[in-house]
Every structure is written in structure tokens, then in C-alpha cells.
TrEMBL record:
This is Adenylyltransferase and sulfurtransferase MOCS3 homolog. Keywords: ATP-binding, Cytoplasm, Metal-binding, Molybdenum cofactor biosynthesis, Multifunctional enzyme, Nucleotide-binding, Transferase, tRNA processing, Zinc. It is found in: Cytoplasm, Cytosol. It comes from Caenorhabditis auriculariae. ATP binds at G47, D68, D75, N76, L77, H78, R79, K92, D136, N137. Pathway: tRNA modification; 5-methoxycarbonylmethyl-2-thiouridine-tRNA biosynthesis. The keyword Transferase applies. In the N-terminal section; belongs to the HesA/MoeB/ThiF family. UBA4 subfamily. Binds 1 zinc ion per subunit. Residues 302-405 form the Rhodanese domain.
């Protein structure tokens, strides 16, 4: 036999690049070979999608697909660490692709710059072996779940908000539940908080996204998934974790049950009562005469110092506020009686008082409308004319004072 001959499990390039993970017991050469031929779809190129994609690209997953419709914005960068300042305003999928190619040029990156919906989801998902849900809204979560069940694809799902993160693997194994098994009905849209409103710390999504990538690597190596049928809960503030065992697949589930009623994608925005995005949708609760524009309010405050309630949480109030504002949160307004509200505003309601104007402002103009309705429903405010400032501080920064902080 030729002294220069040998049997190779990996190419020289693969052995050199991936040696540190090939040396890991139970992953090894077989895991690396499987990784190189695997196709993984990442839905969402944001806080979760960035670490998930980065670690899968680094690990040598042969084909990575990325779905996102959005562009990079400055307030993404604290957590979406695969994007750079120069990418602000450009496509998220293309920005992430550039970074992944710079990390590993030997793999294939496929971009799908689109809003995932009922029309395109089946055609996209069927191209891949494993799906990672890195999205940020209920409509997309139900869509991804149903499509993965219909196409028999395992779904690695992550979420994060404020200090907390969650991770599970849906539709994996015979008894593994899907998302709809656990949540057959969508949440009330008014009770849902996303990171645009509630905030999130970057390392929290980093932890969950990295764990999503780890679950994928176990799958491709043929190892048991740690969180199939289980929910991992991470509390970044306390540094604690919990794992909850989920109930098994429901035979009555509308999509994966014994007699499914959903056999094709449905209208998920209609089903959830909310759009398939993380943008704040405007509401219209008040009549036009119960509102003033930011320009009108600007003119009013030039003449006199008006009464203004700011309904945002104190932490947002601290970021920036108009000097005349009194911070009374929407939650507090709902609990306080009319006398307590009057006291906070330092008002004296006497018969001789001339009717006063009270304005309410919030971040984007939704909570301020709710606040006006709450105040009017409490009664005993006949001496007040209550109106909200349409569009809130967002419009104030856009139309009145461009130096006012936007967040």
C-alpha cells in the first residue's frame, strides 16, 4: 500500500475548520458530515435570528435560509449583533447574509426577503429540513407551526422579552406537541407586549438564539433534543433557569390531531386579530374633537402651560418628557378615583373655576386614547375638557422637535 494513502472521514479543510467540534464526544465526524448536508431555515433576522444563524454558519450547516421583510434600524443594533451601523436602512436578510459569508464562505446562504404568509410559506419551508422560529408575533408563530406540521418539519422555537427568554422544540417525535396543541386560541392582541414596547436586553436573546442553534446541532447529529416536549425558561435578571415538561400532543389539535380541521394554511392575521409583524398598530377610540394634533398642542403650550398627563411607565418618562407633564401611568389611572387624579394634577374643582383643558400623551398615541376614555368614565370631571395628543411623542419628534429622543 502506498505510504501516502489514507482514509478520510472529512476533507482537509473540514478537519481544520471544524476540528474543535468534531472532537466533541457524540458529535464527531458523523455530526459534521450531517451538518454539511443539512438545510436549516431561520425565520426572522433579528435578535434571535442573528445568534442562531451565526452559530449554525460557524458550525458548517450546509445551507441556511433566512426569511425577513424588514430593514436594519439603529435601535436593532444593541441585540441584533450580526448587523453593523453601515447596514442601517438596508435589508436585514442581505445584511445577515454578508456577515455569515464573511464568517464561513464554504456554506450556502439563501435569502427570502418577504413577509412570510399563507401564500408563500409552504413553498419556502418545504426546501429545508429544520425550521427555527425567531419571529416576534403571534400570527407568524401560528403560521410557522401549522406549516411545519403539514410538511412534517421539526420546529425550534425561541422568544425573549425584557429579562426573560423561552425555548422549546415543537412537532418532534411521535408524542411531541405542536404550538397549537398548547395554545389552540390566540391571545387577545391588547394583552400582547413585544420588545418595541416592553424592551429586551441583548444578551437574553443571545442566550436563547444560541440554544436554538444548539438544539439544531443535536438534531443533525442524531442526538436527542433536550427541549422536545419541554419548555426552557431563562430569567436573565436572577440568572435562574427552569424546565417545564409540556403536555403531550393533543389528539384534538386542529392541525396535528387525529382528525385535523386545518389541512392548509389559513388567514393568520384574521385568526390572531393582529398583523404578522412587531410594529405597533394604531387604534382609533376617540372622536376627532377629543384629539389634538402635535402641532395644535405645540401652539397651545406657547400661550400657557397646559395640564398634561403622560401615561408611559416611569422608565420611559425618564428617557424624555415635556416639562409640564405629570406621569400617571395607564394602569394607575384605571385604579385611581377622580379625587386622587385631581390631587395628582394639583387641581381644585370649584364651581367658580373656569373649565380647564387637560391633555394626555403617550409614546405613540394608543394608550393616551385609552386614558381619555378611562378619565371620562370615572365622572366628576365636568370642569375638565379632556383630549389626547394624537400620535404621542413619536409624532412630536417627527413633526415638532426633531431633537426629542425617539426609542
Amino acid at each position: 500500500m502506498d505510504d501516502l494513502s489514507w482514509t478520510a472521514g472529512l476533507t482537509k479543510e473540514q478537519a481544520g475548520r471544524y476540528s474543535r467540534q468534531v472532537l466533541v464526544q457524540d458529535f464527531g465526524v458523523n455530526g459534521q458530515k450531517n451538518a454539511s448536508t443539512s438545510k436549516v431555515l431561520i425565520i426572522g433576522a433579528g435578535g434571535l435570528g442573528c445568534p442562531t444563524a451565526t452559530y449554525l454558519a460557524g458550525a458548517g450547516i450546509g445551507t441556511i435560509g433566512i426569511v425577513d421583510y424588514d430593514t436594519v434600524s439603529l435601535d436593532n443594533l444593541h441585540r441584533q449583533v450580526a448587523h453593523r451601523e453601515q447596514a442601517v436602512g438596508t435589508s436585514k436578510v442581505e445584511s445577515l447574509k454578508i456577515m455569515l459569508n464573511s464568517l464561513n464562505s464554504s456554506i450556502k446562504i439563501i435569502t427570502h426577503e418577504a413577509t412570510l404568509n399563507s401564500k408563500c410559506a409552504m413553498e419556502i419551508v418545504k426546501l429545508y429540513d429544520i425550521v427555527c422560529d425567531c419571529s416576534d408575533n403571534a400570527a407568524t408563530r401560528y403560521l410557522i407551526n401549522d406549516v411545519c406540521v403539514l410538511l412534517d418539519k421539526p420546529l425550534v422555537s425561541g422568544s425573549a422579552l425584557r429579562w426573560d427568554g423561552q425555548l422549546t422544540v415543537y412537532h418532534y417525535g411521535k408524542e411531541g406537541p405542536c404550538y397549537r396543541c398548547l395554545f389552540p386560541s390566540p391571545p387577545d392582541p391588547s394583552t400582547v407586549t413585544n420588545c418595541s414596547e416592553g424592551g429586551v436586553l441583548g444578551p437574553v436573546v443571545g442566550v436563547i438564539g444560541s440554544m436554538q442553534a444548539l438544539e439544531v446541532l443535536k438534531m443533525v447529529a442524531g442526538l436527542p433534543c433536550s427541549f422536545a416536549g419541554k419548555l426552557f425558561l431563562y430569567d436573565g435578571r436572577s440568572g435562574s433557569t427552569r424546565t417545564i415538561v409540556l403536555r403531550k400532543r393533543s389528539p384534538r389539535c386542529a392541525v396535528c390531531g387525529d382528525e385535523p380541521s386545518i389541512t392548509a394554511p389559513i388567514d393568520y392575521e384574521l385568526f390572531c386579530g393582529a398583523g404578522a409583524h412587531d410594529k405597533i398598530e394604531r387604534i382609533w377610540l376617540l372622536e376627532q374633537n377629543e384629539r389634538v394634533s402635535v402641532e395644535e398642542y405645540r401652539d397651545i403650550r406657547r400661550i400657557a402651560r397646559p395640564l398634561l398627563i403622560d401615561t408611559r411607565p416611569p422608565i420611559e418618562f425618564e428617557i424624555a418628557h415635556l416639562p409640564e407633564a405629570t406621569n400617571i401611568t395607564l394602569n394607575d389611572l384605571s385604579k385611581l378615583d377622580s379625587a386622587q387624579i385631581t390631587e395628582k394634577l394639583k387641581l381644585n374643582a370649584t364651581e367658580n373655576d373656569q373649565k380647564k383643558d387637560l391633555f394626555v400623551i403617550c409614546h405613540r398615541g394608543n394608550d393616551s386614547q385609552r386614558a381619555v376614555k378611562i378619565i371620562k368614565e370615572k365622572g366628576n370631571f365636568e370642569f375638565l375638557s379632556v383630549r389626547d395628543v394624537s400620535g404621542g411623542y413619536d409624532e412630536w419628534a417627527t413633526k415638532v422637535n426633531p431633537n426629542f429622543p425617539v426609542y
